[in-house]
Fold each of these.
Amino acid sequence: MPKQKKIEPLVGEELLKKVKELESLSKEEKAKQCGYYTVTKNGIERVNMMKFLNALIDAEGIQLDTSPNANGRGGRSASYRISVQSNGNLLIGSAYTTQMNLKPGDQFVITLGKKHIRLRQVDEDEKEALDIAEATA
């Protein structure tokens, strides 16, 4: 019996994209197509659904296991993914601002690209120039 080459399990965006491509298949077949299976000594393929489902949860940025922070409460961590809210706003959560040591009042210049938004923090000299420009307008 020829040995079948096992593919490396997909993760992250690759996994999400592949699952969407395979939407008509069963969840077991999706897991198998994404590399979440093993072949026994007898040549039987076994699908590892737990690893597949956990990889999907991770790829979606959902944190089920949170370690409590200093005050004993579980907090959110940055998933590096956000969605546009129903009112059209994008909310950048405190997980990001904390990680970047940002403080209330910090200012940014927003640059829009075709498929991205770039934020550049305004330095003190720029901030003074913007304040003066706003005051004279």
Note: Residues 13 and 122 are 32 Å apart (CA to CA).
Amino acid sequence: MANKPELRAEVTMVTAFQDADPMGVVYHGNYFRFFEEARRVLMDKLSYNYRDMQASGFVWPIIDTRVKYVKPIPFNHEIRVVATLTEWENRLKVEYVIFDAQTGARMTKGYTMQVAVGIESGEMCFVSPKVFTDKVDAWFADAIA
């Protein structure tokens, strides 16, 4: 039996001067912007970006996150950010790894968790909406075919 493919996306970017703290390394809060860009590309793969989420009647706030800073990232440094969808039935969990784009060394890892909240009701969903899980299922069906 073949392994199930991973639903992942990656972006390559160069850290900017304004990303850095006075010591010349990326400020810890800016890692979330890097995660967000990779997550945006990942959700585009599903045709379920933030505008699509809203149009389907849901918002997806982040309810939990974690970052492990493995190595400092200096400004003007090329990085590769990989986002992988690891949970989707009851919540949206995306795991991230930031690599040095030149050497491949792992610099940071982390995750974000989001849940669906109905726009009209304001209530959190305890399972992911069918509109989302259908898109994930369709992506896996295409990837395996």
Note: The chain has a mean pLDDT of 95.
